[in-house]
Amino acid sequence: MADPGRPPEPGGGACASGAATAGGCAPRLQDYRAHYTADAEFLSCYEPMHADRQAAEKRRLGWLVRCLAPRRGERLLDIGCGSGLLGSLGAAAGARVCVLDIAWRGVAGARARFPQLEQAVVGDAYALPFASESLGAVVLSEVLEHLEDMPRALAEVRRALRPAGRVLVSVPYRERILYHLCIHCNRLTPANAHLHRFGRGDLESLLAASGLQPRRTWLLTNKLLERVGFSRWTQAWPQSCWRLIDAAANRLLGHAGYVCVLATKVR
Questions:
Q1: CA distance 59 to 239
Q2: Contacts of 224 (CB under 8 A, 6+ apart)
Q3: How many domains would you assign to the chain?
Q4: Is 22 within the bounds of a domain?
Q5: Domain span at residue 198?
Q6: Hey, which of 3, 27, 77, 251 would disulfide with 35, CB 3.0 to 4.6 Å?
Q7: What is the pLDDT along the chain (267 residues), one digit of tens a residue?
């Protein structure tokens, strides 16, 4: 959702609470809108992702929609929509889907690829352009790890959800965060703009503290299986068969790629 922007100068600035650290200090999110927009402009020129990665992504997003189980006619918001694929899967399940991203080019691309989306909006996770209690469900797929102020974003999600509304959050699992030079500001920043690392209980605790009660947790997309193209060579399999083997591999071998939590709004 947001790129880390410029980190503090050596010897100055404060560490971002809860963020990943390098040399004891984490980057602060300064002018994140400009950085993310620049990323969207740059990434729009990229070739489509590798077939193995594309198949794994379709499997993961398909499972997220299945876990959320959107109801026909329900208003579903996909925050940080990326390509718009997840939103299109939600629309295919019968939901009235709005996709949101901070970069206009990303939103325009999602709308062009998937005209069945009801709404495509340029907006910020810290200030959602939706009335209070107007949404039935919200998805944040690979978004929270980019945000410096995660509680603020989750408070906005809770505000916009109807009573007992559902939120589904997916983040990388036990990720090792590396640092490199940002192509926009030439400063040391986290790779992929990931500021946070999550274990199994970390995401549950964060949601619960934000008034969103965790209901179920899954580990998804086994890294060892995906190294041999598991999702691609099983594309014809039912989703349930893929998930059965993926879950078994995560239990027996470890190396899950993502942790996903389904939560509901509590009063």
A1: 7
A2: 249, 253, 255
A3: 1
A4: no
A5: 32-51+71-221+259-265
A6: 3
A7: 333 332 323 222 223 333 343 333 334 445 556 666 666 555 554 446 678 888 999 999 999 999 999 999 999 999 999 889 999 999 999 999 999 998 888 899 899 999 999 999 999 999 999 999 999 999 999 999 988 899 999 999 999 999 999 999 999 999 888 777 777 677 777 767 788 889 889 999 999 999 999 999 999 999 999 999 999 999 999 999 999 999 999 999 999 999 999 999 987
In sequence order, the 6+-apart residues with CB closer than 8 A to the CB of 102 are 1, 2, 32, 33, 36, 37, 80, 122, 123, 124, 125
In CATH, what number is assigned to the domain containing residue 77? 3.40.50.150
Say if 158 falls within a structural domain.
yes
In a domain, 149, yes or no: yes
Structure tokens at 96: 């009235």
Domain-embedded: residue 2: no
Q: Strand 135-141 to strand 161-172: parallel, antiparallel, or no bridges (unpaired)? A: parallel
